[in-house]
Specification:
With 753 residues, this protein is α+β, with helices and mostly antiparallel strands. The protein has 24 helices and 27 strands. The chain has a five-stranded antiparallel β-sheet, with helices on both faces. Strands 21-27-26-23-24 form a five-stranded mixed β-sheet, with no helix packed on it. Strands 2-1-5 form a three-stranded mixed β-sheet, with helices on one face. A hairpin with a 2-residue loop joins strand 23 and strand 24 (710-716). It starts with 11 loop residues before the first helix and ends with a strand.
Length: 753
């Protein structure tokens, strides 16, 4: 045997046309294409073929394959004698010779053809290893009609991959290539096939007597495989057509494509969409696209590109998941996430929902009304436009536009082209791009591009882990359209409606799963029914509920993730969203990102003193005065409350002589005792350390700590807390008490290995 192979040489797999086979996560065949030579031919590596199948083929076709140099001289001589002495014709071709005939299209029925075949076999043996030759033969062996290769035959005749064949099935396939037309003949009822199987079985038992337990199965005559085919060119599976179309476009020359698609989830999406359209035809709804995406594995679990792939009336073969459409309000969560990272808001911050102009742009809410002061959480889940645009106008490094560019959103025009309208869906995204953004929230702020199959792209942060978690937590409070309560399984979801009623969206995160639903027309025809909350949201939850009922989504994995350890909860004054002073009695709890969330002491509630005799405002408490706690809203906020139908008391005007009267201010302001002044704090990266923060004051009470205006933590006067700076640099530390008095100190922090 030649050990030194001749070079250069192409891989044998590159010389043989092959089909593309696409499989679901459980091994179900989704689609099989014809090879370029109009044959069904799946190429598999030798390691993926059952060892029993390999041994059976060698035992039947060429038992000396491992030792000869491409031809078996004794077998050739015996075959020539029998053929040309008037006996039965015998080919005596080795596996290498059969590969040469199939690979080079040699007609070996003539003497010259046989010589060519012999020379070609020797040529192959001089260039390729036995492993390569055997692998190639098993992939081109004829199995009747346009079926080539043992893997293809295993699929067509037994509907399973070769590694799952049992021994009788393996024996059956091993004997077919020698004469597939006769051995698969219906007329002779597989008589030749049965004879060949028994001969090979006897040889097999000679080597493996322990397999005699299969003898009863082998004695059963093989039914005609042409009649028993589980698959044929006419009934090959054509499942998840938009998904497989996209895969074939992306992996044109790949022989086998293994996907993460869940065949039952795919069927559920298709069934629920068909039913939904049937029940809503009266609303003019006739097309839907949807994706179920696994954010953990970064793979598509189910994909429906249109309601009916074969319906030309709705352009059914168009894949709506890759079409650019206006996302409506589905981008708003990222505005709030960016705003939290840029120290603009926390979930309980009070925003203004009022008529506002941003230069020439004056956004309106979908319902045409304004509701006045509103918390950031309520503004997001109620999808108020004005607060979102107001926040988007304040974003810098990155802006919403930069954020989308960083996420790889394609075909964006210039930032000036969209202006602030981008916040409300003025640009266009595909469902795939939108799904990847919501998957980023599920992946703790780390982004990876959308992938049909498991992606290998490195992730990178688009939002902080804290901001991503809080954004999802805000969206989890969004009430379902059918119950009016947040989803039992903590689904974080958002709707979107494009301007002019062209697109209705709902997209959400449940555990590691992202589900997106779009309702519309591929030709862009508008419909007043295309409203996210009314059209897409009901179908969104119908799909989720069905998947859960079938246990295709595991409730144990749908629970919300644990919050990052760096997050903290702090009580705030409900009315103002700021840390409560001593006069605010109505408190709420909200998330804060230490060192980042904007926090100050609330000054909304203040004491005002009235003379009991005259009922006039006085400067301070006296023998004949009473104290009232009044909310001191700014004039614009008072106007908002009034316009929203919730008028607030107008604060009284203090007498002029009160301007210098500070008797309402406590003089025992905090005094910082740690950290020290004029000291640079060096922190080793190899052994993270903290800096002690401590402040004293004359009385008891809370001390609120800030670093460069970002809230750190709350402590009691005289008690120390540990602070872990996140980066090197100059910090202005402030200790503020509940009356608003403070002390400050500059600190320099540096990091060393």
């Amino acid at each position: 045997m030649i050990s030194l192979r001749l070079y250069p040489k192409p891989a044998l797999s590159s010389l043989i046309p092959h089909s593309t086979a696409i499989y679901a996560a459980d091994g179900t065949l989704l689609r099989l294409t014809l090879a370029s030579d109009a044959q069904y031919q799946i190429w598999v590596s030798l390691k993926d073929i059952s060892p029993n199948a390999v041994e059976a083929v060698k035992l039947y076709e060429d038992r000396y394959f491992d030792w000869h140099f491409g031809i078996n001289p004794i077998a050739l001589l015996r075959g020539m004698v029998r053929t040309y002495s008037g006996g039965s014709r015998q080919g005596a071709s080795t596996i290498s010779m059969q590969l040469a005939r199939g690979l080079y299209g040699i007609d070996s029925r003539t003497v010259s053809g046989k010589v060519k075949q012999i020379l070609a076999a020797i040529w192959l043996e001089s260039r390729y290893s036995k492993h390569d030759i055997l692998e190639a033969y098993l992939n081109i062996a004829p199995y009747g009609g346009n079926i080539k290769g043992i893997a293809t035959a295993s699929l067509f005749y037994f509907n399973k991959p070769t590694r799952r064949l049992n021994l009788p099935e393996t024996i059956t396939l091993a004997v077919i290539p020698q004469n597939p037309n006769k051995r698969l003949s219906i007329n002779n009822k597989n008589a030749q096939l049965n004879e060949a199987r028994i001969r090979l079985w006897q040889d097999w038992l000679g080597k493996h007597p322990e397999d005699a337990k299969y003898s009863a199965d082998m004695r059963l005559p093989a039914q005609s495989l042409k009649e028993a085919k589980r698959l044929s060119g006419q009934n090959l599976p054509f499942l998840a057509p938009h998904f497989t179309d996209a895969l074939l476009a992306e992996h044109r020359n790949q022989a086998i494509i293994q996907t993460g698609l869940n065949i039952n989830a795919q069927a559920t999406l298709e069934r629920m969409i068909t039913s939904y359209i049937e029940n809503n035809k009266n609303l003019g709804i006739n097309n839907v696209s949807a994706i179920l995406y696994d954010a953990k594995t970064m793979q598509v679990k189910a994909l429906v590109g249109s309601a009916d792939y074969f319906n030309a009336a709705i352009h059914g073969q168009v894949n709506g998941t890759s079409a650019k459409r206006s996302p409506g309000s589905t981008l708003k969560p990222f505005i709030y996430g960016l705003a939290m990272d840029q120290s603009l808001i926390h979930p309980a911050s009070i925003l203004k929902d009022a008529p506002t102009s941003f230069g020439p742009y004056s956004p309106e809410n979908f319902d045409g009304r304004f509701i006045g002061p509103i918390t950031a959480t309520d503004a997001l889940i109620r999808s108020r436009n004005v607060p979102a645009v107001s926040l988007a106008a304040k974003l810098t490094q990155p802006s919403l536009y930069d954020f989308l560019k960083n996420a790889g959103v394609s075909d964006l025009k210039s930032e000036s082209h969209y202006g602030l309208a981008l916040a409300l869906g003025g640009g266009e995204l595909t469902m795939e791009e939108l799904v990847s953004l919501y998957a980023m929230l599920a992946n703790h702020g780390r982004f990876a591009p959308y992938a049909l199959t498991k992606g290998n792209a490195a992730t990178f942060p688009l939002l902080s882990e804290e901001s991503a978690y809080i954004t999802l937590d805000m969206l989890r409070q969004n009430p379902r359209p059918d119950t009016g309560e947040p989803d039992l399984y903590k689904t974080a979801w958002k709707t979107g409606t494009s301007w002019g009623f062209h697109d209705a969206w709902t997209i959400g995160v449940s555990g590691n799963n992202v589900l997106a639903v779009w309702v519309g027309n591929f030709d862009g025809k508008p419909n007043p029914a295309f409203i996210g909350i009314k059209t897409a949201a009901p179908l969104f939850f119908q799909i989720l509920d069905s998947l859960r009922h079938q246990r295709l989504l595991n409730p144990k994995t749908e629970v919300e993730a644990m919050p990052p350890h760096t997050l903290t909860k702090v009580k705030v004054c409900t009315a103002s969203g700021d840390l409560p002073n001593q006069y605010c009695k109505n408190l709420s709890e909200t998330w804060f990102i230490p060192g980042k969330s904007p926090i100050k002491i609330s000054t909304l509630h203040r004491p005002v003193y009235f003379d009991n005799t005259t009922n006039q405002v006085v400067c301070g408490a006296g023998a004949n005065t009473r104290e009232e706690i009044i909310e001191f809203w700014s004039s614009d906020m008072l106007r908002l409350f009034r316009e929203a139908g919730m008028p607030r008391r107008v604060p009284p005007t203090l007498p002029a002589e009160c301007s210098n009267n500070r008797n309402q201010v406590i003089d025992d302001k905090p005094q910082i005792t740690s950290p020290l002044r004029g000291v640079t704090y060096t922190i080793r990266l190899s052994k993270p350390e903290t800096i002690a923060l401590k402040a004293n004051r004359g009385g008891q009470g809370a001390i609120y700590w800030f670093a460069n205006n970002g809230f750190i933590a709350k402590s009691e006067a005289g008690a120390g807390i540990a602070w872990s700076p996140q980066k090197a640099g100059h910090y202005l530390l402030r200790a503020v008490d509940n009356t608003g008095q403070s002390d400050s100190r500059e600190v320099v922090v540096e990091f060393v290995p």
